[in-house]
Structure of Ribonucleotide reductase large subunit domain-containing protein:
Amino acid sequence: PQDSLELLEKERGCAVEVPKEGKMDWSIVREKIAKHGMRNSNVIAIAPTATISNIMGSSPCIEPTYKNLFVKSNLSGDFMVLNRFLVNDLKKEDLWGKEMSDQLKYFDGELSDIPNIPDWIKDKYLTAFDVSYEFVIASAARRQKWIDQSQSVNLFLGEPDLKALSHMYRAAWRQGLKTTYYLRTLGASNIEKATVDLKQKKPLADVSDEPSAKKKYTEAEKKACSIEGMMNGEECEACQ
């Protein structure tokens, strides 16, 4: 919260790079707390809500959209996740159809390489890897001063290297983030490839439409997090 920024600066001996000018009128809240008290000393914590957002068809809370089209894997199976708001805008422009669906699959849900999509749609539906991590960190820093616990901040870097990682985490430290959560890279993402024909321009390998057999997990295995699965971009159902 606002008052903890001063404590953090005192502890570090240097300024925290986050604007402190914003103020809100808390008098009504103070009066109610003085009259009724509080059940909990801390009341706000923000998580990405990744699994719930997939079920509800929305972006994960404070996080940029991961991709406009991707396959999500967990112990329940594989799920195709498609940005329904993108589909609605493409329908308005009379661009949605099998050919567009095939192009989205071929380009892993990235719009920049699909020429007939208008620029305003491309700008509107930037994915997490298109949004600068500097913007994500700055947004989290400004948000955090109103949060009395913490927030789960995932960072996205398509092709990470030591220089970029050093700059990214130093920026998070300078702006006073309490913590960061996962670092997502493109190497961990996995899109279900289909046999598509983009006007005969790009030959694609034949891929069977038959789904691969899913491994049957025991009850003990279901309760355990798979490190190998996390490295492959999968998500444990316990990590909600």
